[in-house]
Amino acid sequence: MAEFKDRLKSLRKEKGLKQNELAKKLNASRVTITRYENGTRQPDIGTVEKIAEILNVQPSLLFEVSNVHHEGLEEHQYLNEREGNIIEFKDRLKSLRKEKNMTLQDICNSINVGKGNLSSYENGHYKPSMEVIIKIANLFSVSTDYLLGVSDIRQHITTTGIENATTEELMDELYKRLKIKILG
Questions:
Q1: The dihedral formed by the CA atoms of 61, 66, 67 and 71, expressed in degrees to the nearest 10
Q2: What is the pLDDT of residue 67?
Q3: 15: three-class secondary structure by DSSP
Q4: Cβ count within 10 A of residue 65
Q5: 3-state DSSP helix/strand/coil percent for the chain, to nearest 5?
Q6: In whole angstroms, what is the distance from residue 81 CA to residue 60 CA?
Q7: DSSP code at position 128
Q8: Which of 12, 98, 107, 163 is found 20 to 30 A from 18 (Cα to Cα)?
Q9: Which residues contact 159 (CB under 8 A, 6 or more apart)?
Q10: Dihedral through CA 19, CA 24, CA 27, CA 32, nearest 10?
Q11: pLDDT digits 0-9 by tens, 78-134
């Protein structure tokens, strides 16, 4: 899996932004961007959402391996209301926990997070870090976009291994993956 620091740097350069330009748009210092890109600092989810909006990508693209870019999204199509996504996150977290018949303590033990913190995430009082979101998504086998309320599709579809495929080959592969999920 590509690390956040590498994805951020790559996407920033792809968009033709210098660190200081991204920092200005993010209302942060260039040093903060440097720290994100060298891995000495991790942004919280609110900052990840802002970075994704600036780079015009889904948040998951910053920390999941994916070759699917979400170009051309209008601002209103992307994260309609950030506060709504936090509410969505807490609801999704609680729903997934109940669906798997897990207690808060079960999740805490699985992802190594304090019970007080997890309870605060589930109640919507605090925003989890990107690292915690990834751990929760992996625990429940859902995409981070689903967990954050950006998408209603539970699984993240990657194009790893089929990057140079024709449209017909891509459709065949997608059909196979969907068929496996439906029948699985």
A1: -30
A2: 39
A3: coil
A4: 13
A5: 60, 0, 40
A6: 17
A7: P
A8: 163
A9: 66, 67, 68, 165, 170
A10: 20
A11: 333 344 444 478 888 999 999 999 999 999 999 988 888 888 888 877 778 778 888
